[in-house]
Design brief:
GO terms for molecular function: DNA-binding transcription factor activity; S-adenosylmethionine-dependent methyltransferase activity. This is MoxR-related protein. The protein is an alpha/beta fold and 338 residues long. It contains 13 helices and ten strands. The strands form two sheets. The protein has a seven-stranded mixed beta sheet, sandwiched between helices. The protein has a three-stranded antiparallel beta sheet with strand order 1-3-2. The protein is globular and about 60 Å long.
Length: 338
């Protein structure tokens, strides 16, 4: 009763109702909300603080920015949904707020597209070296099968393509990346597709703010070759995976194209089958399947192209270790790996 009254009191004010209405369209920063509502930043921040404390709004820091979105957890989500559904659709103030939201969304889209355009040449050069993305994604969907997904986590989400592809299959999906420009592109795409169950966050994939044994599906797509310690990312995936949860790793097989280090910031020139399976074994991931894909459809591609490998594994159905024991075990295993 106390939490319900607190939530209703927080929502029961005109500016805060307007904030809930706007956040129903998507997650926004304080600066964007200030522009939409036409109020000062301190005032908007104060109202957001009250909504956050009441559990109606969630707050996600991202570098120097902070994103806000409506609560999607427990009773708070039910209260928010009920309040927003009762707002009058013909209210002139709410309509004006929506028009300004569309303007903010358009500006965000323009910035994201400019970033995409400035980097498109490099991405296209890399794509030309390996089999079509559509064929890789088709294999991934086949490997997933009809598995039920409650929570899906995408490591190194980039432009959000994996969320776009697998998000509709999940109850909840979140993608993490360290590139704010790529996250802006991903947000734009998710909004265009109305994938409200999907969100993206700034975060280090070796240390994520997620509960252990919570995810049914984790995908690490074309990320490991950028990392100093790929084994640490797989270890973190193993921590987050629920028993019998599925991990899919997509990356390059060993190659000798040194220009990828010079021009594309690749730290590693691919991964062997034995290397990935050894890391899987170290963190209690049971290898399930793998497939090599290249332009000729054979095990080994030509020297001037890249072979893409998809590894899948299932988290062992064992008792979850306590945090202290698990931390020590992962540290030991990471030292034994790459």
């Amino acid at each position: 009763m106390e939490s319900l009254l607190s939530a209703l009191k927080a929502a029961g004010e005109e500016t805060r109702l307007r904030l809930l209405a706007v956040l129903n369209y998507g997650e926004l920063t304080v600066t964007e909300l200030t522009h939409i509502l036409g109020q000062s930043q301190p005032r908007i921040s104060r109202h957001l603080k009250l909504l956050t404390e009441a559990g109606l709004v969630l707050r996600y820091p991202e570098g120097s920015w902070v994103f806000y979105r409506l609560s999607d957890q427990g009773h708070s989500a039910d209260i928010v949904s009920a309040v927003v559904s009762m707002l009058p659709g013909d209210d002139l103030i709410l309509q004006r707020d929506y028009d300004r939201f569309l303007q903010v969304q358009s500006n965000r889209s323009e910035k994201a597209q400019n970033y995409f355009s400035s980097n498109a040449e490099n991405w296209e050069t890399l794509r030309n070296l390996h089999i079509a993305d559509s064929q890789i994604e088709s294999k991934m969907l086949k490997m997933l099968g009809d598995r039920e997904i409650n929570e899906f986590v995408d490591f190194g989400t980039g432009s959000g393509r994996m969320l776009e592809l697998f998000g509709p299959r999940a109850t909840k999906a979140v993608g993490f990346d360290l590139n704010a420009e790529m996250l802006a592109l991903a947000r734009m795409r998710l909004e265009e597709l109305s994938l409200t169950n999907c969100q993206v966050r700034l975060g280090d994939v070796t240390l994520l703010p997620l509960q252990s044994a919570s995810a049914d599906l984790i995908i690490i797509h074309q990320l490991l070759h950028f990392l100093d310690d790929p084994a640490a990312a797989i270890s973190e995936a193993a921590r987050i995976l629920a028993p019998n949860g599925l991990l899919m790793v997509v990356d390059f097989a060993p190659h000798e194209i040194e220009t990828l280090r010079e021009h594309h910031e690749h730290r590693r020139l691919g991964f062997s089958q034995d290397e990935i399976l050894r890391i899987f074994d170290d963190v209690d991931i049971m290898s399930q399947d793998y497939v090599h894909l290249d332009k000729r459809g054979t095990k080994l591609g030509p020297s001037d192209s890249l072979t893409v490998t998809i590894w899948s594994g299932v988290k062992s159905n064992i008792a979850v270790l306590n945090p202290d024991t698990q931390s020590k075990q992962l540290s030991k295993k990471q030292k034994r790996s790459i």
